[in-house]
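Field reference: sequence -> structure
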Amino acid sequence: MDKGSPDAENTSKEVTIVISRKVKPGYDKEYDEWLRRYLMLEKKVPGYVGATIITQGGTASAIRHIIYRFSDKASLDAWENSEARKQCVYDHSQQNIALLSTRNKTLAKATAHRSFS
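Structure field:
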């Protein structure tokens, strides 16, 4: 791709993490409170772009999909290796409120959509 092309200008080094969790029955409130604390910590991290939370099947669902975005891999790595994150994740594991957790990291560069006529 040519560095002077419109596509090159719209290419980002943004990194996306997708985590899916199944919350234990009856622990929705505890999980959501923990997630709120986690997101408050994460928002303070340099390179944090944003997060989206999707509850599959509405607010009564036990499934949570959390999509985190960072400006680049170095920012994500710094957050993932920070003591604040490690402590927050440890606290979560001690509460034993999630049954299943899966994680997918997308390191590929994101390209903005262009419309063609």
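Note: Residues 5 and 11 are 10 Å apart (CA to CA).
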